[in-house]
Amino acid sequence: RAMPAVGEDQRQHLELARDTVRRFHDLFCKGNQFKKRCKAAGIPTRPSFVEPEAMIVKEGARIMSLTDGSSKMSKSDPSDASRINILDSPDVIRKKIKTCKTDAIKGLEWDNPQRPEATNLLNIYLAVQPGRTREDILEEVKDMTWGEFKPALTDAIVAHLEPIQERYRAVREEDGVLAKVLEEGAQAAREVADETLHGARVAMGFATAPAASRK
């Protein structure tokens, strides 16, 4: 629960949450008074909250638009051609990659500021092939033309999304499964939240009764 999966652009929000947690702990979760409150409430003497840590993949953390390699890929972009949607069919993906923005330079390379589309498409190619490295990818594609690389990229994206789409369809066909997952998840979240909130109240002196006796 302390490692939310977020994008690189959400890191600042995680840092704000971490600062808030540290401040709370400095104010309320130290000293003998805190220990006495925890003992009276029958809870462990430990900080009320866990500092969140961003879980961001090293490669492909920031994927850019297919129509502009300098802009972030976004589901809110009015142009559907700017992005790959999880449920896009192979034919749709093939069309989007075939028509996506590139340049007139032969060969592919990473991190050339003059070639943002090359970097972006290579990042996508790497992201949909877990276990491969930049060096491995570059060795494969460095001398390719765009006409050679785009079909390879399309095949890699389709292969990566296929099991996800199959699982989506299977879940959608199971009556009530989504409602059950939501209900069970909500109940589990409530239990964790109640325990955490009670610990915070104890730390601040707003609650003294053991958790088992609370109504």
From TrEMBL:
Its EC number is 6.1.1.2. GO terms for molecular function: ATP binding; tryptophan-tRNA ligase activity. It comes from the Eukaryota. Its main location: mitochondrion. It comes from Entomoneis paludosa. One of its GO terms (biological process) is tryptophanyl-tRNA aminoacylation. Pfam families: tRNA-synt_1b. One of its GO terms (cellular component) is mitochondrion. Gene3D superfamilies: Tyrosyl-Transfer RNA Synthetase. InterPro entries: aa-tRNA-synth_Ic, Trp-tRNA-ligase, Trp-tRNA_synthetase. Belongs to the class-I aminoacyl-tRNA synthetase family. It is an enzyme of class 6 (ligase). SUPFAM superfamilies: Nucleotidylyl transferase. The keyword Ligase applies. This is tryptophan--tRNA ligase. The keyword Magnesium does not apply.
